[in-house]
Structure formats: structure tokens, C-alpha cells
Amino acid sequence: MNPLGIALVGTGPGAVPHLRSLHDLRVMAPLRRVVTRRPEAAQLGPFHGELRPSNDFQAMLTDPQVQAVVIATPPATHLEMAQACFAHGKHVLLEKPLDVSLARAQAIVESAQRHQCQLGVVLQHRFRPAVERLQALLDAQSLGRVQAASVSVPWWRPQSYYEQAGRGTRARDGGGVLITQAIHSVDVFRALVGVRRVVAAQVSRTRLHRMETEDHVQALLELGQGAPGRLMATTAQYPGHPECIEIIGTQGTAILEGGHLRVDFVGEEPAIEIKAEGGTGGGANIMDFPHDWHRSLISEFVESVQKQRPSRTHGGEALKTHRLIDSILACAGEVADL
């Protein structure tokens, strides 16, 4: 396969694992350009001294050496940037979430389809080895029929996090803990067990944070096979703990905690256990996780462009997760102050 020339737009904290991954993948996905609002302050990590960042977005769009663009800017900027890329024939790998609203997210997906470009979304938790193994077990019905499942995201963010411009606002981020932090676990959970509908939900703003949107969510769900499901997500649980998905099946139980998986089968079949190193970004250090999952995601996205097929986390998949988050918030109604 021919190498796929990449441009990176945005050099904030979220760009760090992209830069590390692109350095690892520089043969198949050479980084051609870096675009940022403040080139003089850009931190390029492993590419320091190799590339000169620029604030010229238009020059990137017209560069024939760039075939795909990684957009790692705040959600409110995604629609216009993605549409411009598609109009110039560039494929796009977009940081989560798609955008700040379902309507704008839908417009991005439709624009990609209209211009026949690939759209991938950075939902890198799908590429954790433990998640991939659990998905394979469920696909093979090794756990039997799902009887119940839950997802818990007991994370922590200090107030200083929300004092950064736009953090936790609808205008910049599109919402609070669900769309910004828990979206990764919600996406994995939805992909693993499916969600038919939201039965009940409660959305709160705890006394630990001063912010516009929610920092604590609980929901009861009806899963894809009709079984009961439960969701809890927060950024108010100090000091932050690994997210956890538990699935009870007729033939066994799976517990996915961070990057660790344990599956115990009913009967004498030996248990399966996968252990992983590194954090999950659930505490005050939001970048406390390895870049391995990003590297796998980018590699798969590049392959999807080369083979002209949707990536595993294509826009349509991300749109399903966005719809679920919107359904939870709509069911809950107004954010309650505790």
C-alpha cells in the first residue's frame, strides 16, 4: 500500500497520543503538516525539530501531499473543519465527540458520504486488547445470552479543569461528563451489548464542581437482547478509578475494568484473564494512559482509506453513541443541583 500523507490540526493535550502514534507509524502514515492557532507555542513531542507548525489551514487543504487529516480541536470547531476537508477530497479522523450537537454531528457524517470520503472517529477504547477479546467472545456467544450488564465511569476532575475556557460548556464541549469523558465507555458498552432504549435517567451537578453541565449521571437501560442495564458516570469521584463494564451471561460473567478483563465461565472451563499496564485518564492527570490504542486506531483508519472501506469507528458508529447520550439526557430532563 502507498503511504497516506497526514496533517494534524490542533496541538493541545489531546494531540499528544496522536503525535506519538504517528511517529510510530511514520512509514505508512507520514505526518506532512501540523496546523495550530499558535505555531510558536506548539509542542510536537517526537516531531520536535522535524516539522514547522503553521496556522495556515487553507494551505493544508490544498497540499497534494496530504490525503487525510486528524482533527484534534475542540468539538465546536469540528463541523466547519471537516466539511472543508471533505470538499478538498481529504479523509478525516476526528477527535470525539463528532460535534456539540446531534444535528451538527449528523451534518458531518452526511458531508463525508456526499464527498465519498472516509470519516473515522477517535474512540480508541475499542482497540484495547481486552475489549477486542470480549467482543470476540460475545460474537461467538461464549457467554451465552446476556442477562444483565452495567457500565461505571467513576472518574475525577478537579475544579481547575472546569475553569479552563469552555470546559464543561454546551457551546465548546457539547455537554458534561457523558459527551466528554464517559463517551468512550458508553461507546464500548453500546457496541458490546447494544441499547434498545433508556428506561429512566437522572442528571446532576454535584457540589464538587462549578460548571454549566452535568458531572454525575445515572440511567437504567434496556439492552439489545431485552436484558436490564445500568449506567453511572461522574467526574466527581475523587481521586478517580478505572471505568468498569460487567456483563452477566447464561454461560459466564465478564468484568472489564480499565484495560483488564476477567471472564469466568459456568462449569469447569478455565477462566480468561487479560492484564494491561498503564492508567486510563480517570484522575486529575487526564493524559495518564498509553498511546497504544491510538496507534491501533490510526493504523486501522489508514488501512480503511487504502482499502476504501469504513473504519471500525466510522462516523455512523459514533453517531449511534451520540444518539444514546442524547437519549439519556433527554430522559433525565434538567440538570439537578445537589
What's this model, at a glance?
With 338 residues, the chain is an alpha/beta fold.
Primary descriptors:
338 residues; alpha/beta; Rossmann fold; Dihydrodipicolinate Reductase, domain 2; nine-stranded mixed β-sheet; five-stranded parallel β-sheet; 10 helices
Give Rg in angstroms.
20 Å
Percent of residues in helices comes to 25-40%
- Count the E strands: 14
Please name the CATH topology of the largest domain.
Dihydrodipicolinate Reductase, domain 2
Domain count, please report it: 2
Q: What structural category do the secondary elements indicate?
A: alpha/beta
SSE succession: EHEHEHEHEHEHHHEEEEEEEHHE
Query: How much of the sequence is in beta strands?
Result: 15-25%
Regions with pLDDT < 50 over 5+ consecutive residues? Answer: none
Strand order, main sheet: write it out: 13-12-11-10-6-9-8-7-14
Report the CATH C-level class of the largest domain.
Alpha Beta
CATH A-level architecture of the largest domain: 2-Layer Sandwich
Mean pLDDT: 96
Overall shape: it is: globular
Largest sheet: 9 strands, mixed
